Amino acid sequence: MVLSERVRNVRPSGVRKIFDMARKVKDPVDLSLGEPDFDVPLALKEEAIRSIHLGFNKYTPSGGIPELREKILHYLRLRGIACEDVIVTPGVTGGLLLAFMVILNPGDEVVIPDPYFVLYEYQVFLLGGAPVFFDTYPDFTLKETELRRVLSDRTKVILINSPNNPTGVVYSRDELEMVARVAREKQLLVFSDEIYDRFTYDGGGVLNYFGQLYEHTLTFGGFSKDWGMTGWRVGFVAGPKAIIDSMVTMQQYVFSSVNSTAQKAALLALDYNTDDLIEGYRQKRDLVYEGLRDKFRVVKPGGAYYIFPEAPDGDGDGFVERALEKKLFIIPGSVFSRRGSHVRISFAAGEPAILKGIEILRSLV
């Protein structure tokens, strides 16, 4: 069998590799998972089941059911996010793929802060674009000098993710305004991945949305994190109408449409408050940060459910191997970065697992 050049240059996800290993171990301490440890709320499950019994089981419009699109637009505009239209997608992953498909030409560059979520690099690469990274170490903040250093006449998009996976950092208003200023000056699009938007723990839990600052923004969000619907694969992209229209056309040939019953549950989810479930993550954040800060160089995460400490010897891969010997599953930072000095730890787990994980991590220093 002859494989394409495209697939031969793509390595399997390091995150999925750790997930698969953890499933095969008896009684693992798994702090690798990138999904909430709470279940989909009962009311949303019942809504999905009700829609099945009512016969809502056929294909839906390629852009998503109209009532969900309208409600998402209302949800975003209440937050001051500039958007003319919205498309419902199979998670943020599907939304990013469609957006890159309609935006990128061969050789176009997408500028991404490092560290970054692993799929950004490969989606850009698979579509013929060039991922270009700018450094945010050691505090994971966006620095104008670093951003401008990597811009070129081939730059098409700046992609940011706040709250950030893998660092948990939430970008400040000043940082976002800087990116908006640079993007406006250079006439660039900005992709803003805000899938963790409600997982913020400081500043009164208020997030600065990039779409509040810059009109040429695609805002990516979804239902996987805030409502625990990771396996239901419902996301959205909002932004300029011309781009969204093109993405709807592209979706006809890529995904056809999005799961019908999951869209009905998502419609109800926008009215379902999960603040109490998310509030518990503030306590988990504090627990893991306080448990590590005296032994590791670590930035306190302001959102999401990840913390990204530096390995004591600067060898994140080696540190992960040592942790695996004690049945602790974490992700090497090299999966998310051009550097291999850090590790990603998820605190989307029960308190007993977090406490045991802290104990093992401290014993490895």
Write a brief caption for the model:
With 365 residues, this protein is α/β, with parallel strands linked by helices. It is 40% helix and 14% strand.
Q: N- to C-terminal separation?
A: 47 Å
- Which residues sit in consecutive blocks of at least 5 with pLDDT less than 50? none
Which series of helices and strands comes N to C? HHEHHEHEHEHEHEEEHHHEHEEEH
Number of domains: 2
Biggest sheet record: 7 strands, mixed
Helix content: 40-55%
According to CATH, the homologous superfamily of the largest domain is Type I PLP-dependent aspartate aminotransferase-like (Major domain)
- What's the number of helices? 13
Total number of beta strands = 12
Shape: globular
Q: Write down the oligomeric state.
A: single chain
Task: Write structural notes for this entry.
The protein is α/β, with parallel strands linked by helices and 365 residues long. It has two domains: 5-40 and 274-363, Alpha-Beta Complex (Aspartate Aminotransferase, domain 1); 43-269, Type I PLP-dependent aspartate aminotransferase-like (Major domain) (Aspartate Aminotransferase, domain 2, 3-Layer(aba) Sandwich), CATH 3.40.640.10. Helices cover 40% and strands 14% of the residues. The protein is built from 13 helices and twelve strands. It has helices at residues 5-8, 14-23, 42-53, 66-78, 91-103, 118-126, 144-150, 173-186, 241-254, 260-269, 275-292, 316-325, 351-363; strands at residues 29-30, 85-89, 109-114, 130-135, 155-161, 189-193, 217-222, 235-239, 306-307, 328-329, 331-332, 343-346. A seven-stranded mixed β-sheet has the order 2-8-7-6-5-3-4, with helices on both faces. α6 (118-126) links the parallel β3 (109-114) and β4. The longest helix has 18 residues, at 275-292. The chain starts with a helix and ends with a helix. The mean pLDDT is 94.
